[in-house]
């Protein structure tokens, strides 16, 4: 006889399967290019190596990508991207704040408020870009019925 799974375990298993499928859609070279586009100017004059913060940037890009892919289901069912972004604004804000704290801690950015504010804007744009990327690829998978 088969094993019994609770509803939570089955839902978690299904979520992990979907995330594994979505991770096939993301490229590590794309992530590294966006890291250079968004954060190269903040760390050019610093003695810290880019490899020290690159790993965290990759983790946060993957998290934002998966968050967008998770919420793409609502776009498939007719909501606009703006409505879906509003729906997950809390999770996205938490992710952005965590990323900003990570960049402040490991990036050793100065205490200059102007630099910190521009870093915060860069972090928000970075997370939003990867959220949108996950959203569009997830919506595409739903339309092709590949979920």
Automatic annotation (TrEMBL):
InterPro entries, per database record: Uncharacterised_YbaK (IPR019667)
Pfam family for this entry, one: DUF2521
Stated name of the protein: DUF2521 family protein
Protein species of origin: Metabacillus arenae
């Amino acid at each position: 006889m088969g094993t019994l799974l609770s509803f939570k375990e089955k839902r978690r298993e299904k979520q992990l399967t979907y995330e594994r499928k979505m991770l096939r859609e993301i490229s590590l070279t794309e992530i590294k290019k966006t890291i250079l586009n968004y954060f190269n100017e903040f760390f050019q004059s610093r003695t810290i190596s880019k490899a020290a913060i690159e790993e965290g940037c990759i983790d946060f890009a993957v998290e934002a990508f998966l968050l967008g892919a998770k919420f793409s289901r609502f776009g498939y069912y007719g909501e606009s991207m703006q409505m879906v972004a509003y729906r997950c604004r809390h999770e996205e804000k938490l992710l952005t704040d965590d990323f900003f704290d990570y960049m402040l801690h490991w990036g050793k950015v100065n205490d200059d408020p102007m630099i910190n504010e521009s870093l915060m804007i860069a972090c928000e744009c970075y997370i939003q870009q990867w959220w949108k990327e996950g959203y569009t690829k997830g919506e595409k998978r739903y339309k092709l019925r590949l979920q």
